[in-house]
Amino acid sequence: MPSLLLSLLLIFISFLDQLQCAVGSADEQPSRADLFGKVGVIRQDLKTLGAHMNAESVSTALRKVSYDELAVPIMQGIVDGLPFNKFVVNKTAIVSEMASKLNETFDMYGTTLRTARDAVQLYYAKHPMDMQVFRPFKECCRLRNDELRYEAQFGSRVNLSYACDIVSLSEQPQFLFYPGKNLTTMYQHNAAGLAALRWQYFISAAGSHMEYPAHSFDPLGPLTGATCVQRERLRHRAPYLSSALPYPKRVVILLDYGSGLPNSQLLKIQAVGKTLLESFSSRDRVTVLAVSSKVIGPCGSEVPDLLDPTTDAKDALFTFIDSLNRTEEFSNHSMGLEEAYKVLIHAENSLSGRPSSETAHNFIMYVSRGLLTSLTEAGAVLSTLANLNVNTYISVQINTFAIVDSDKTPLLWAEQFLRDVAEQSFDKYRNSLSEQLRTKLKDTKMNPPKGKMIVVDDNEGRSVTLTKVFEALKTPEAALEPSYRTLTSWSAPLNELSDPVVSATMPVWHKDDFVGVIGHDLNLNVIADALKYADLPDNSRARLMLTDLEGRVLVDSRLRDGFMRPASVADLEGWSKSDRWKASFTSEGIFEGSFELSVPVDTNTSRRVSYTWQKLETAPFVVLLASEMRPRMASLERRNTQTLSLRKVVYHRLDLELNNNIHAHCTLMDQLSTIERGSVYLGPSCFTSPHAHMSSDKNTRSKQSTRASGYWVYLGDGAGLIRNTGIRPGVREDVGALAAIVDEWQRRFASSPYQKHILRRFVATNRGVMVTFPATVYTDDFDPTERHWYKRALQYPGRIVLTGPYLDSSAGEIVTISHTLYEGEGAAMHHPDDQVFAVMGMDVSIDFVFKILYDTLSVCRQFGRRCMLFEDTGYLVARGDPLLNQGNRSATADLNASPLYAEREPIEGGHLTHREPSLAIHLLQNGMFMRKTTCKQFTSQKLQRLYQFNTSYTDAIRMTGENPAGCTRSEVTPMPRTNAFLAVLDHTCDLQSSVQSAFCPCSVSDRRCLLCSRIDPLECECPCECPFKSSGGVGCSTDETAQSPVCDAPEPPYVTPSSARDVNLFAKLASQEGAGSEKHLAQCVPIRCEQHTTIDKCLGVLGCQWCLRAEDGRRLLTDSYCSPIDQCFGGVRGRSIQGYRYDDEVLSAISTPVGPVAGAIMGVFVLLVIAVYCYRHQVTRLVESRVSAGSGSRLYPTADDDDDDEYRFDHEGSKVDS
Questions:
Q1: Are 166 and 462 in contact (CB under 8 A)?
Q2: How far is CA 1154 from CA 1069, 1090, 1149, in A?
Q3: Which of 496, 656, 721, 1212 is the 20 to 30 Å CA partner of 622?
Q4: For 570-598, how does the pLDDT look when each residue is reduced to its tens digit (9 = 90+)?
């Protein structure tokens, strides 16, 4: 009979599953089906029925707590009662409006640059030579620390009172043109009013370089690791040359690395090659070849393409230069020059060598000592050059760089040879030419452009000065082109202090005298402020990008913080190879357009994305909209005269005391708060000028108070009489809608059995409007729409979504439970495909989620059993210690030997792969349930290895023990209507099961994978990342990440809302309550951990932890107790929140316990690690001793610094303490 009942129940559940699929369940996510394929399992194994019933029970309990505490149905009813307007999405209008804003902004900065140029021209007309010696001026690298002060606008320490100078005393005349204080005064005015200005500078034709504000070149800026002198030598070199010589240049840098070179001179050649590489801009095309007895390039022996000198391309070429080692063969100069010609001819015949429609000028930059194998070789080389000039149709200027030792007598014949090559002096070698060639030369009357020979006699290429390179690249006919004299040139973006910075420059001419170049560096993160925080109809399905004309993305609205190396939109969006040509917007006469593409999701599925673009008129950039938005959407009806009910909310800046009628301030986990009101927070997207709003924190408190008061008065104005002080349209309506829930939250807070378990409740819209209860203070750059709880709720609409855990400095590990609210449909049922209006959520401790498990399932309270929940990427959101379930039974030696928390946690210590490696390995074998994935993170240039669990999987997965009874050691079941999974582990199945027999490698110091050289989809490891080389390099190898999708934007670091001790509220309270009032500021929710005498009562209480173990993490306490969490974090007495993850104690060998067999394997592994380490240490020592004898530290880090050897178990940044 019981079996019959179970069978009938099973059939009924299967019927419900099929019915749910038929009507379109909220639980079935297309993305999961795309990833794992269709799962149509019909449960027939009665053994898993109990697991499904347990998962259903926990899901129901979670939903009940969520709905009861957040009042989700009531909030949805409020939204359904609001008036919404339907509208058609006009993508062209969105792009056009954004292009108009950016045109206006770039034009403002362009006007500033032109005004500065005119001022220099006027000053030069009056004072062409400033009659003062150069020495008294401020040199940037000689500024004292006490002269500088940090300024956020510049991201470094500066002096706003004056400019500083970059000098080359070996070349400077005693008297020269210098605009001095006249230009500094203008620069001071510009910097005060234009937030995007970083550095303003003027470089004269003589090479003197002034820069405002004065600074000493932050070591974290471009050329990280170089000295100040090295950084200043290359400062603004490429922008200067692109403006002074604005015609396109095709350049082959040819490096001699033959046997005639001692190592010291090879290092000089490499330094000169790198210096030359830093001289070219996006208008140019460049590559590097190296010659000895044969010619090689970045792609080996094949003829390389000329490259756009982007950051990636330069890095790849730097790596090639660093890889050169002196050979035993003499250099074949003729072969090297001939191969360089082939590259230029190939570029002339292909699109890769045509940076624009203008005529490009061809250059070969030959860096050599000039050694010859015989006296006749010079004639043979010139004969080769003559033959190339006669038989090819391109004109090439050759510049040579003669490497000499300053302390030795120069080889005059070698220098003369290099001079003859540069000047292409065929007449001197006429007797060495064949009769046929002499005849051709006479008939063609060839007049090749004469180049320059530059002597290099220093170790780091300092003698390759800016003015010498300028003279080497200058062509007389191009210098006379009138249009070049008024042209604004734009550099490629640089990564400066995590911001994308571009340099805009203009040449300064007075009549026919070239005076110099005026320029300024602009922070694109500030200029593209409106684009990053654009008010799109649906931010989750659309993104705006600012690209250059080649389709490289400079700013992306999905990646709002930090610098992203320019990457092709085709890479970022995952376009197929056949569609990549659409990423170029260089066609002349075409200024806007649109197209649709089928973008691959994986090998089997794709999605349709529409792209709309428009070129800017005032800068060489493009606004691009990528959209998957539905054609018709809805927004709250805007009513300017609507009076909002704000009586239950305050502006979140409680520290500014805007609401003097509220005195009941309190602390909530050390955070300033009040339970009398909810708080309204407006994210950056709520303001017309987000950057100005976020940077206002540096203002005085009175200015901040005035600004915040202006916002609040405008929001509450129902008559439309108050001037808007910078809030975007639609924000008032969002505030009014969300504020209506605070009354209900207050009632539920007062009567809730979980008053001591829930940290805060909140709700946020896609504009960034957020209402929180109890009231909470946030920093002005906090963006709720960038948090995982918001994004993941959009990914799983209609479900209960768990994210985290995050580490709160007072409350410990916090898990967020969130849920979507739909756009108003008063007379209809909601569907997961409906438009989402907002996301509700609440923060609870990780133990509170476990408490729900503990209270719901009796199995979780049984001895030897342990329950846990993990979300769809594998992070544990509820976990229990098996010792909690001992009851009256004393601890066994086996359990006592296995601490739950290691002495030092791996970075991914909260992931399933670390906590339960045996289970993770078992689940990974089922590709329909758990899958290892990779994605590209362009902001950090890392390839991330992550896990994805299939929330649409319909059956439970069981792992049986090895004993004869075959009992179930673990059971994992998807929890319906959530993004979580229930795992029940039975340690009684095997008394030794607490000593894991599996191992998943995890780094303890960073997120770098322990082995980056390969990836095995079935190999268990903690989530990690490896550096990758994007396809923007030399292009001669297959992109290692071509099949990997782009990662979601990384979540900004979790920041605890402002602490009560961080805000200056106590001064007023002290005057009212007397001295020491800070100590007496009441807790919003009084919590005394010692009052909770049982596990049931202690679990999940904010700031409390059931203390089980002694200080060593091994021994059990005789009398466990409820302790303040900062005194027993993780259940280990004496462990603090801040110290547990950064403890420098010895990494415990039992952090991932191993059995006897695995222990033997690990012993061999450790020996191998030690052997590899010793070998690499010895090699490194020998290499360093050889390098240090030459040039000391390298000027440029190479990409190879991040590569793995074939067997690389150690890596930079990771260590094992001893």
A1: no
A2: 57, 37, 9
A3: 496
A4: 888 888 888 888 988 988 889 999 999 98
